[in-house]
Amino acid sequence: MRVRALALRILNQLRHDRRTLALMLFAPIFLITLIYFILGGNTAPISIAVVNAPADYLRNLEKYNVIVQRMDASAGSIALERREVVAVVSLLDGKASVAVDGTNPAKVKLALAAIEGAKISAPAVRPDLRSDVRYVYGAEDLSMFDNMGSTLIGFVIFFFVFLVAGISFLQERTTGTLEKLLSMPIRRWEVVVGYVLGFGVFTVLQSLIFSSFCIYVLKVMMVGSFPLVLLTTLLSAIVALTLGILVSTAASNEFQMIQFIPILIIPQVFFSGLFDLPPVIASFGRIMPLYYVADALTQVMLRGGGLADIAVDLSVLLGCAILFMVFNTFLLKKYRRI
Amino acid sequence: MSASSVILLQQVHRSFGKKPILQEIDLEIFPGQIYGLLGPSGCGKTTLVKIVAGILEPASGETYVLNERMPKLSVMRQIGYMAQSDALYTSLTALENMLFFGAMYGMSTAQIKARAEEVMTLVNLAEDRHKPVQAYSGGMRRRLSLAIAILHCPPVLILDEPTVGIDPVLRKSIWQELQELARQGTAILLTTHVMDEADKCHTLAMMREGRLIAKGTSRELQERIGVSGIEEAFIYYGGNAHES
Question: B-chain residues within 8 Å CB-CB of A8?
Answer without folding.
Answer: 100
